[in-house]
Write a structure and sequence with these properties.
mainly alpha; about 0% strand
């Protein structure tokens, strides 16, 4: 009877060890997903920061240009139609039925349009680490 108790104790101990192993494994897997998501968030934030720095450099160059008399004159002529004394202003009119070209839209940052379930599937299959496309 003692051997049977010893066998039950060993099987109980084995069950507890297996349960502990499953819990430890699960605890290691789920934070990995969070770490990967945070890495993507950091990458996105870095791209946004670089875009803002580029915009800041562009605005600083524009500000420096606005300090010159040539740029002020150009803007006065272009936006307000001002002319120097003695100059003759001309207005260019488009022919009837012809529309002026539309200004090009300003570039924007691209957003990730991947559905959440695709990200989950890629995570479960390991495709997110391999960088493979659908």
């Amino acid at each position: 009877m003692t051997e049977q108790r010893r066998g039950l104790r060993l099987s109980g101990l084995l069950a507890v060890l297996v349960l502990i192993a499953v819990v430890v494994t699960a605890a290691g897997i789920f934070p990995l997903g969070q770490i990967l998501d945070q890495g993507e968030a950091v990458d996105l934030a870095e791209r946004q920061l670089e875009a803002l720095r580029d915009e800041n450099r562009r605005l600083e160059a524009q500000l420096a240009a606005l300090q010159t008399p040539e740029e002020v004159e150009r803007l006065a002529r272009e936006r307000f139609g001002l002319v120097r004394p003695g100059e003759v202003p001309y207005v260019v009119v488009s022919p009837e039925g012809e529309e002026p070209p539309e200004p090009e839209p300003e570039p924007t940052l691209e957003r990730d349009t991947t559905p959440w379930w695709r990200d989950l599937w890629d995570f479960l299959t390991g495709r997110d680490l391999a960088g493979g496309d659908g």
